[in-house]
Amino acid sequence: MRNTKEKGMWKRTLNIFPQIKIPWHLYVIQVILGIIVARLALLYIPYLANIQQGKLDQPGVISGYLGYYVLHAVVNVAYRVSELYATAIVTRNLQNKMIGRALHLPMRSYESCASQIVGWIMDGSSSADGVITSIVGFLTGVATVYMSVTSLPAIAGTMTTLVVIILVYILFSTWLEGRLLFLRERRNKRARAELTAYLAEHLGFFTQIRQLHARDEELRRSQKAINEYYKAEVYQATLTLIGSVVSGSLNDVITILVFVLGVPMVRNGVMTLVDLAAFQNTILLAYQSLSSLPGLYTRLMYYNGQLYYVANLMSEKEEVTRREKGMDIEDESIRFENVTFGYDPEHPVLKNASFTIPKGKVTMIAGPNGSGKTTLFKLIERFYTPDEGRLLFGPYAAETIHLDEWRQSFAYVLQEPQLFNGSIRDNIAYGMGREVTEEEIVSAARLAFADDFIRELPGGYDFSIGDNGCRLSAGQRQRIAIARAVMLDPAYLLLDEATCNMDVLSEQQVVKALFRLMEGRTTVIISHDMRMLDQADEVVVLNEGCVEAAGPRDEAVKNSPTLQKLMAV
């Protein structure tokens, strides 16, 4: 992703919040309730001081303490409830926004972080509320400090200078703690996301790991990933310990200073022991609130580290789907005009490619492995834009046509169809964007020669196919994918090795389904199976990223040594 440096991180983090809906009314309620909680705490401190000194016989001590304490507890519960609701709402809204942003990223940006996005959504998003809660705490802290400090002279005015000493120590400790928290959380989130990405990517291929006898290799890889996470945990624990020593010592420092300065005054009769206890409780309350003021920096640094990668994701620009014109124009031929493209611009995969995919005809893309065939499909679907040259739709530049409408005009059938863990019905209807009828689903399955085998399964169309269709055969998965393409009713069809790696009977069924799907549609086929060549009207031959031949089938066969070699195999 583009934004991976610490510079400008504050701006990117704060830029998250205008993009999501914030329940501001709940945070306003938190500020009000927080101030009330602090005021009630100050009101019961004198009663607490008398109780601590054993003066229970004074009128109203017990009832006053219990009354204010219970009221304080009730208001505090209300504060926590509003806090919990606000946290849940902000986290939910940010997660929804992050998923939406991920789905609308340009392909280059998405592929650079695809396996880590899950970790960011699950872990980082919960920290967004912490930024706002820190500001709420700051506001209530200001009010509490003001109420506490203004009440100190009435208790023991000669000791109020102690606040200045405490303030200096707080400023230093919170700055140091904030810096440590940022470094800790940034490294921990990176290591956690990388471990999550490894587990999600590799353990999802459990069957293949066993088939390829790669358990020892995967064990070594997992140990390496876990070891990196372990190092981050040790780093986190070390910085946490340093921070806790610095911040945790302050409470003890205050207690020592209060008694060092206060006990002689009690002995000299300047103040009573009850006043000293009340002063200590009040100044500790003031300290807790006072520490929240510079502590705003500490908490923001903490959440800044937590949100580091979330902010980077949210700062990425989305694909621009609305362009100059829609697809409500007559179907046209697709033309590549001097197109050069590479995932790394310095190493192009396609080089100065020019050819035409005629409308209403079948065009086959042939060539050896690594020649750029699948990349060509990605350009047709506009997952990427050419580095040089143009992709044309008749007389129009493809980039001027609405991107969402363009992709809705295409259906893509892969060598390994991508199915979801759910029912056959849900997989066939996937991508329609509307409610579909049972008749539509069954009709699509019949056109794909899938209806018969579906009805033989337990539950029929409600049969759960497992992760990526693992409970179906390769031919069955492919026919489900073809039925989904039938449902989409595309004007343009892209077939990428759609009959590869199947037994003879399955291949025959899939080929019949494909031929039925191809009727009346502009079709582009990638296949190493030269039997598919008989179905092609046009052939484009790629070799090392260059167009070796393009034109009618017989002409391409005549002019392309690469195609002749492929046919001879």
List the helices and strands and how they pair.
Layout: H1 9-14, H2 24-52, H3 61-103, H4 107-111, H5 117-123, H6 128-156, H7 162-202, H8 206-211, H9 215-267, H10 273-292, H11 295-306, H12 308-315, E1 334-341, E2 350-357, E3 362-366, H13 373-380, E4 388-393, E5 396-397, H14 403-408, E6 410-413, H15 424-429, H16 438-447, H17 451-456, H18 474-488, E7 492-496, H19 504-518, E8 522-526, E9 538-543, E10 546-552, H20 553-559, H21 561-568
Parallel strand pairs: 3-8, 3-9, 6-7, 7-8
Antiparallel strand pairs: 1-2, 1-4, 4-5, 9-10
Q: How would you describe the overall organization of this protein?
A:
The protein is α/β, with parallel strands linked by helices and 569 residues long. It has 2 domains: 9-315, ABC transporter transmembrane region fold (Up-down Bundle), CATH 1.20.1560; 334-568, P-loop containing nucleotide triphosphate hydrolases (Rossmann fold), CATH 3.40.50. Helix content is 60%, strand content 10%. It has 21 helices and 10 strands. The protein has helices spanning 9-14, 24-52, 61-103, 107-111, 117-123, 128-156, 162-202, 206-211, 215-267, 273-292, 295-306, 308-315, 373-380, 403-408, 424-429, 438-447, 451-456, 474-488, 504-518, 553-559, 561-568; strands at residues 334-341, 350-357, 362-366, 388-393, 396-397, 410-413, 492-496, 522-526, 538-543, 546-552. The strands form 2 sheets. It has a 6-stranded mixed sheet, sandwiched between helices. The chain is elongated, with a radius of gyration of 34 Å. The two termini are 43 Å apart.
